[in-house]
Amino acid sequence: MREIANINSYPTLHGLFISGYEDLGGGVFDESKTAKEALVLMAVGMKSKWKMPISYHLTKGCNAETQKTLIMHAIEALEEQQIHVRVVTCDGCATNLATARQLGCNTEENDFRFTFEGRKIYVALDACHMIKVLRNLFADLFILNTPDGKVQWQHIKDLVAVQEKGQLHLGNKLTKHHINYKTQIMKVKLAVQVISQSTADALTTLRESGYYTEFKNSTPTTLFLKVS
Fold this sequence. Notes:
Blueprint: E1 2-5, E2 21-25, E3 28-34, E4 37-44, E5 51-59, H1 64-80, E6 87-90, H2 94-103, E7 113-116, E8 119-125, H3 127-141, E9 143-146, E10 149-152, H4 153-164, H5 176-179, H6 188-192, H7 197-209, H8 219-227
Parallel strand pairs: 6-8
Antiparallel strand pairs: 1-4, 2-3, 4-5, 7-8, 9-10
């Protein structure tokens, strides 16, 4: 399930804006609320390459209980067509985690499974979204306190600075665009190329060389990048 934000920005052929009220389908609508989002449910094949949007619901924010109901309706409808749902994929926002709990997952124990008609269905957090969230957290907080020590965004900036000066390039793809990513915040590659083994190896090389004192305390950052 994915949320497509701000449907009011979609122009018609006449250059006008689409606007309307909250409508979840099945006769459930609220004319007191102007819809701002569309919750879209899409079925995707696991053993063959196909995908198909199966429903959309115009909302002004959808709570966990409502999302659970919509997901269960979708699963039941697919089962009627002999399509067996194995995984529900979503991003990691708080409402979606609450929806997973409503479905029966024990997120406190990292058990992202629920039961439907005697079999297990998994809830999977979208990896691309989660890696961007992790990168954003790292950059915004600048310093993360971990059991291994302080993980510092400054080490990423210093690595880019060394490479941008043309002194050397250490087998990674980092550039100033990975630091100033907010104009391209949706680009997955800018996140995964920061949170990567190659970045961790570059920091290790600079630290162990002894020539770059700005990396002397970079061990916690290196471990964080490897584990993440």
